[in-house]
Design brief:
By secondary structure, the chain is mostly helical. It has a domain at 9-34. Helix content is 33%, strand content 0%. It is built from 2 helices and no strands. It starts with 13 loop residues before the first helix and ends with a helix.
Length: 72
Amino acid sequence: MSKKFKKIPKFNTEDEEAEFWNTHDSTDYIDWSKAVNVIFPNLKRTPPSKLIPARVPSVVKKVVKERASKKT
């Protein structure tokens, strides 16, 4: 006997949807056994549209730069 899944409600805003998923278990709504991985081969990384200055200790800045350089 297969599990009966609940219907996902309609949301008016992203905040409303986020609140819903923060307080509900997705396994009651989605059959994750049928989920598949999707690859978007033409997706390009773009720089952020807005830079935000932040003050961080120099050691944190050094670690972030080292890790970022390993990822590229």
